[in-house]
């Protein structure tokens, strides 16, 4: 058995393993790994377990930290989507997790696995290896063998009505045509994050490179030739599309709801391209109030609990960071 890191992993074998793995998401593809490492200030590491010259387990860890005073206390590694495994009973998950922890334990305060698939059978294994389980839920919409009219019909009444009103008023949605359109969308998204979400947002170049490198599909919502919203989505052919970011101008028009159309654009893309699932990428902790959970559910999806696994590598710093970053957020 071998443990390989980054460029030592055979790219052809990685692609083959990714394509056949039932747990594949865009976030553990070699293209996403390359994309993250192409950006200034961003980095990702790829870890693989090899046996008999074949990949048996693989994970892409994106390394994050905030800027300024928060940088030291926000160092973390995130495995978006979960690891790639041959099957849920794979014995190689132990070696993969151990390899990741040994490599990153001095570099990050914690490592988190954000599952986009059902890894519940591995919960006991993670726990025995010193990981904590967090009961995060998600909203997923099944689009397999359905047309867009059928999907809209199963949305909540208000959602259907507001979509209908928006279209009647002349609002429309389409794929983004160029970086200029993306920039207009980014301005709306940036305004939302500054005024309401109050969380860090990657710079425009992050999204522009994602678009130019064809890592994501970008949809824009327009009215009277003005961009009023849109969505930025990653997807895996024949598996799923992920609503990474979406937004709309607030209070733009009393009968136009641009955010609804931004999401509808992603759903219609899934239907037209035979993508069986729309993943809304998170609905908070199961037993805590989460503001946009109901919004996501109104598109007709179902609530699922795939959870997250957390490995704290520096407990004292982790506790200090949680308190400190919480206080900083309140001061904003």
> Given the structure, what is the number of helices?
11
- Structural class computed from helices and strand pairing: alpha+beta
Which regions are unreliable across 5 or more consecutive residues at pLDDT < 50? none
Name the average pLDDT: 94
Order of helices and strands: EHHEEEEHEHEEHHEHHEEEHEHEEH
The Cα radius of gyration reads 20 Å
The largest pleated sheet is described as:
8 strands, mixed
N-end to C-end Cα span: 50 Å
Q: Which of globular, elongated, flat, extended, rod-shaped describes the shape?
A: globular
Report the count of strand segments. 15
Q: Helical amount among residues, as a percent range?
A: 25-40%
The amount of beta strand, in percent, is: 25-35%
Can you describe what's shown?
- This protein is α+β, with helices and mostly antiparallel strands.
- Helices cover 36% and strands 27% of the residues.
- Strands 1, 2, 3, 4, 5, 6, 7 and 15 form an 8-stranded mixed sheet that branches. A 7-stranded mixed sheet has the order 9-10-11-12-13-8-14, sandwiched between helices.
- Helix 7 runs antiparallel to helix 8.
- The longest helix is centred in the middle third of the chain and has 19 residues, at 179-197.
- The model has no long low-confidence stretch (mean pLDDT 94).
